[in-house]
Design brief:
By secondary structure, the chain is α/β, with parallel strands linked by helices. It has eleven helices and 21 strands. It has three domains: about 40 residues; about 210 residues, 3-Layer(aba) Sandwich (Rossmann fold); about 170 residues, 2-Layer Sandwich (Ribosomal Protein S5, domain 2). Bound molecules: thymidine-5'-diphosphate and magnesium ion. The site of magnesium ion has 4 residues, from helix 3.
């Protein structure tokens, strides 16, 4: 095949040049020229303009789609994050730090999908077939319909897809794939963009569900300038702490479901295991009588989870008071401390504060305010809270406790885990008769709540 012509396009102004230039002669921007394949313009009849036999405007009501079309992966934590299963012809990008477990997850998913009738083509540019086999043995994957293909050349991969006609395609990873028509180096922006566009094409035209692994670069974005996120259907981040076994799969973009869903896994010797009740893990190591510890019911997408918030308040020895947070928003903590000072007369300006959400989660919804305040006051007063009570509520600047969403689900989850008492905003208007198994205390202001609790 004749080598396709390529050109360089300025990402800022769209200026086109046949050569690579450091600085765009049109807008003056530096390092913005990215290589692209020049698609020949068909001068006869441009098919996309004239022959529209395969796509016509149609009535919304006439479009057929039923939820059954989604395929369950057999891993329910992943299905939840995807919005109920894999949509045929969709492209899912799974990003994460190297070594977090992306290949492990996708190999397990491939094994499951292949077992339930689909044909899976697992393309790896990072490991050889025998290395993948070794891993598959450890993960006890025996599916017959799983094909391995250690390859990085996109034209070979294209041919393999045309020949094998898989239902599912896994590309591990996008950064190792090479579009031979481009002169740019493997892993460069031009390559990654071309490869992703190509995979998107394959997904849409052939109805193949594609999973693409993308390594996160130092800056935190997938493949640098977030170039892939807008191109694909779904973006999932696999995160967690390399020092802990827990991994969280988080959806940040989903054309076929809600975002902010999380799935939890535990990395073991035999691969990733689903964690179906994360609350138990987050509360597992909690000390019963510790001071500075309060439990909150926080929503992660549609799922309530109970998390312990810890705080340590100690007098500042010199200089300005320090505020340090892990898994919580720094500014929010400062606001709550200011409110406690002004509205509840708790003198915190000469105290250092350290706050932490345990279990490696990040909490950033307003409903955690009340639990943060209680953890702070508990440490300040050196008085522990009852181990079977928890808190939900947003705190306003005048010290009022504000309504939160999805309160019924939060209360149910607390009751399910054996909590006896939950403090909720009085404005939420809960009918206590709906929840006989837990005592519900409606609270109005932070000052009164502190008097009630301590
Ligand atoms: P991997 O899936 O290769 O990460 P990624 O593709 O995101 O770079 O996961 C690698 C880590 O997972 C490695 O440090 C070893 C660990 N691991 C286990 O603990 N148990 C297992 O069964 C497997 C396969 C991996
Ligand atoms: Mg890998």
């Amino acid at each position: 095949m004749a080598k396709a012509k390529t050109r360089y396009i300025c990402q800022t102004c769209g200026y086109v040049s046949p050569q690579m230039l450091g600085r765009c002669p049109n807008c003056g921007a530096w390092n913005q020229m990215v290589e692209e394949i020049e698609r020949p313009v068909n001068t006869k009849a441009t098919p996309s303009r004239t022959s529209v036999s395969h796509s016509q405007p149609m009535k919304l009501n006439a479009v057929q789609f039923d939820e059954q079309q989604r395929h369950q992966t057999g891993i329910s934590e992943l299905d939840r994050v995807l919005g109920g299963g894999v949509v045929p012809g969709s492209l899912v990008l799974i990003g994460g730090d190297p070594g977090i477990g992306k290949s492990t997850l996708l190999l397990q998913v491939s094994g499951q999908l292949a077992q339930t009738g689909g044909k899976v083509l697992y393309v790896s540019g990072e490991e050889s077939a025998s290395q993948i086999k070794l891993r598959a043995n450890r993960l006890q994957i025996t599916a017959d319909n799983l094909y391995l293909y250690p390859e990085t050349d996109m034209s070979a991969i294209r041919d393999a897809i045309a020949e094998q006609k898989p239902n599912y395609l896994v590309i591990d990873s996008v950064q190792t794939m090479n579009e031979p028509e481009l002169a740019s180096a493997i892993g460069s922006v031009a390559q990654i963009r071309e490869v992703t566009a190509e995979l998107m094409n394959i997904a849409k035209q052939q109805g193949v569900s594609v999973f693409v692994v993308g390594h996160v670069t130092k800056g935190g974005a997938i493949a640098g300038p977030k170039i892939l996120e807008h191109m694909v259907d779904t973006v999932l981040y696999f995160e967690g702490d390399l020092h802990h076994n827990y991994r969280i799969l988080r959806s940040v973009k989903n054309r076929f479901g809600s975002t902010n869903e999380i799935g939890m896994f535990e990395m073991n010797n035999d691969g990733l295991r689903e964690v179906t009740n994360p609350s138990e893990i987050f509360l597992e190591e909690r000390l019963a009588q510790a001071t500075g510890s309060a439990v909150v019911v926080s929503m992660e997408g549609t799922r309530p989870i109970l998390v312990e918030i810890q705080s340590l308040i100690s007098p500042t020895l010199y200089g300005n008071a320090k505020r340090t947070t892990t898994g919580l928003d720094h500014n929010r903590v400062s606001v709550i401390m200011a409110v406690l000072e002004k509205r509840a007369n708790i003198l915190l300006q000469n105290q250092d504060a350290y706050l932490k959400a345990t279990g490696g989660v990040r909490l950033n919804e307003p409903a955690i305010d009340l639990a943060m305040a209680m953890a702070i006051v508990s440490s300040y007063k050196d008085q522990g809270l009852a181990p079977d009570e928890c808190f939900v509520g947003e705190i306003g600047l005048t010290g009022e406790i504000r309504r939160v969403n999805l309160i019924e689900q939060r209360i149910k989850e607390a009751a399910k885990l054996g909590f006896q008492k939950i403090y909720v905003p009085a404005n939420n208007d809960i009918d206590v008769h709906d929840f006989p198994e837990i005592q519900i205390v409606g609270v109005k202001t932070i000052g009164k709540t502190i008097k009630q609790v301590f």
